[in-house]
Amino acid sequence: MSKYFLRRVLISIPALLGISLVLFTVLAMAPGDPFEELATNPNVPAEVRLNLRTQFGLDDPLPVRYVRWVTAMLKGDWGFSFTSRVDVSTLIMQRLPTTLFVLGTAQLLGLLVALPIGIYSAVRPYSIFDQIATTFAFIGFSLPTFFTGLLFILFFSIYLDWLPFIYRADLAATGWRWVWEMARQAIMPIAVLGLFQGAAMTRFVRSAVLEVVRLDYVNTARSKGLSEKVTILKHVVRNALIPVVTLVALQIPGVFTGAVITEQIFRVPGIGSLLITAILSNDTPVVMSITFVFSALVVLFNLIADLVYGWLDPRISYR
Amino acid sequence: MDEHKLRDLIAEVKAGRLSRRGFVQMMVGLGLTAPLAAQMLASAGVAQAQSKLMYKATKRGGGGALKVLWWQGSTLLNPHFAVGTKDQDGSRIFYEPLASWDPDGNLVPILAAEIPSVQNGGVAKDGKSVTWKLKKGVQWHDGKPFTADDVVFNWEYAADPATAATTSGTYKDCKAQKIDSHTVKVTFDKPTPFWADPFVGVRGMIIPKHLFEAFKGGKSREAPGNLKPMGTGPYRFVEFKPGDVVKGELNPGYHMANRPFFDTIEMKGGGDAISAARAVIQTGEFDYAWNMQVEDDILRRMEQGGKGRVDIVAGGNIEHIQLNNTDPWTEVDGERSSIKTKHPFLTDPAVRQALNLLVDRAAVQEQIYGRTGIATANFLNAPPRFVSKNTKWELNIDKANQILEGAGWKKGTDGIRAKDGKKLKLVYQTSINAPRQKNQQIVKQAAAKAGIDMELKSVTASVYFSSDVANPDTYTHFYTDIQMYTTTMTQPDPEQFMRQFLTEEVASKENKWQGRNITRWKSEEYDKLYRAAESELDPVKRAALFIRMNELVIQNVVVIPVVFRPRVSAVGNAMRVEQSGWDSDFWNLPNWYREA
């Protein structure tokens, strides 16, 4: 297994390099200029822009810039944002806790919703509960988050006036008051994201359990006289959840990008909104770093998923 | 209106037969800005109006938290590196200029002890220098005194090309010199009528010498102070997260008595304009939101029974249609719309006049912009209450038909007019944005009734407004017959603004389409007037020149002004703020307060 692991890690290095090269080239060739606003502002002399371009090394040929970027990245230097001159790593670290908190809780909420509902639906397929759960799951994942987000805002913030819809990373309050305020402002983005995730996952859990529940060994367990509860929890769910675990692992990087819109709606200062503003202002180093981190996460979680899969189901062998 | 008539009017004001406001109103109607009109009165010896301060609170602090929303977050807090309003406004919380522009275009002293004028000897008679007296006893947030050295340093800092300051245009052609600890003399290379550019308004904020001295020139962007501002303003720096939040707390040593009212300030960035309006007007979560680019219908609906209102103040931004003078469909030396070509039919004055009669500004205002875009006949505009009736526009399809018919443009079997085998078919481009596409429809329908066929084109804003040399769809390339966008007026003086009709500014391949004359209109008369205005010291003569320039542009239908777009912000009902169209949203921040 360690040999397999090593080989997979070695393969991912050229993969990541390839990804970075493609990203870099695409970004360099995309229309737009980080100092565009300066160019259209009549009060700023053209020299200022040219001066900044040289200062930030934008006029060097593409290969030179790429090599410089890669070597700096290897040394742990992520470069700095053209618009604020802040190190990209600082920018990301400022926003990571918020992203992790909101996304992590949302993912957890999704699981908490999906597991019981999915399992119960599968155990009693086509029952009334299953019909209702399936309908809601379909509605849930066919409604985009920007729509449900707006709906939540209109209902809870404007109509009922219960919750604030602007997320603030640094609340002035302390102690319990802070917890309360934090919960109030986080509840809507977490619910929107979590329910969206949960809806999709419910369907997945249901079909995974459904596949296992009809197998012979389950019938054997039942005929041995085990209670229904024990049969389902110990014999069905354990086996059914193997693909679910992989799915969750693979979804994690996707969640970062999927939250971009939700972050924008609730003004959650997370990585997603940082990426959007960076793209809009052509702030290449920030866009480059975030997209690269995303792709590295995809590669990493793919690897983890593969390893976990084999560990959960030893019939899958590594060669 | 010529110089003599202007002088007569000023005499009327002096004699008290014409109100100050009435005069400014008239000048604005003729195409001048309020600040220029105010300057004209000042130099003629009419006392400057005292800005009325609306501040009512009786002690410093105690106002709680002030929460404001900017839907674009500040990215850095050094006013000399500000790229756009979001950075200027973020910096303005902490930094202050020597003087600011009030809504009527008067200068208000901030760090200056008084406003220089010819009468008090501050402005030199030859227009080559201005002397500023600084307010005494002003302290930086760390307790160090604010002196003339700081002011002079700001000039050195911004004028140094290696610093690459976005304000360098303001400072590179002047020289600042210390007279004594609280007096600074600014000298210009040539007579400069608009002396109130350096150290005034958004480009005039002063940073402390003792913190930035080591970071002049090439190392300018490394300064820790770029992210941790320390100024003289009403609030002290607490925290800054680029693109997200700027926080400040009351400055106990602020140089204006009993100010500021609020204990803390939080400027949150990001999101979009509609939800920002919602957070202020509908739910009252925030106290103030900047730049409500939202259809007026939506704003009105929010205002009903809401917790806030919309505050509108006019500046100089104008949504206008440009008519191409060159041929966008023929390539010459690898460039379309080349200055060497002539547009096949837009060079015919009859066609231009007809087009001018076909743009229904009233419909555009009523159906699209409401209070946020006011129909206008002028290229230069100012507050709505100032707009005079001296200039006119009309929608007249019959008249347009008559003009075209008279000029020999005959309708063909397809209903499209033609002359000498050239058909009146044109391409109308603008950026993708709901109000603009609606406008295109309105214009296209009217044009069809006059036998002009319009093909509509829309370009993504990020491409249309980019400076990308390789992309033919940017507005500066102007590779279509007519196009529309808003041009912003960033300074209260019209000199920079009116450059966009100069022959030397023609956008072309040669200058990488950086030239600002995008219509490629060439007029010797205009150029001459502009040159004269540049160094004309007598504000009255100078104003007459600008009025004439505006008339030339309008008479020749170089552009068709559609609506001017005032600044629109959202304000909580209890909040008391005063906006100016000529300065930052925060120009009057120390005086903001909340009614109990």
Plain-language structure description:
The complex is a heterodimer of chains A (319) and B (596). Chain A has 319 residues and is mainly alpha-helical. Chain A contains 13 helices and no strands. In chain A, helix 10 packs antiparallel against helix 13 (284-312) and helix 11 packs across helix 12 (271-280). The radius of gyration of chain A is 24 Å and the shape is globular. Chain A starts with a helix and ends in a 7-residue tail after the last helix. The mean pLDDT of chain A is 83. A 7-stranded mixed beta sheet of chain B has the order 7-8-9-1-10-21-11, covered by helices on one side. A 6-stranded mixed beta sheet of chain B has the order 13-20-12-19-17-18. In chain B, strands 4-6-5 form a 3-stranded antiparallel beta sheet, with helices on one face. In chain B, 27% of the residues lie in helices and 18% in strands. The relative contact order of chain B is 0.16. The two termini of chain B are 49 Å apart. In chain B, helix 8 (273-282) packs parallel to helix 9 (296-303) and helix 10 (349-358) packs antiparallel against helix 12. Chain B is an alpha+beta fold and 596 residues long. Chain B has helices spanning 3-15, 20-29, 34-43, 85-92, 148-159, 168-171, 209-212, 273-282, 296-303, 349-358, 361-369, 397-406, 434-449, 461-464, 494-497, 524-534, 539-555, and strands at residues 65-70, 99-101, 107-109, 129-133, 174-180, 183-188, 235-241, 245-250, 264-269, 288-289, 308-313, 318-323, 374-375, 410-411, 417-419, 422-423, 425-431, 453-459, 482-487, 559-564, 567-572, 575-576, 593-594. Mean pLDDT of chain B is 87; it is low at 382-389. In chain B, strand 7 (235-241) and strand 8 form a beta hairpin.
Q: How many H/I helices of chain B?
A: 17
Task: Please report the total strand number of chain B as a whole number.
Answer: 23
Number of helical elements of chain A:
13
Topology pattern of chain A, helix = H, strand = E: HHHHHHHHHHHHH
Q: The biggest beta sheet of chain A, please?
A: none
User: For the residues shown, what is the average pLDDT of chain A?
Assistant: 83
Give the proportion of residues in helices of chain B: 25-40%
How many beta-strand runs of chain A?
Answer: 0
Q: How large is the share of residues in beta strands of chain A?
A: under 5%
How many strands, what sense, and barrel or not for the largest sheet of chain B? 7 strands, mixed
- What radius of gyration of chain A results from the CA coordinates? 24 Å
N- and C-termini, Cα separation of chain B: 49 Å
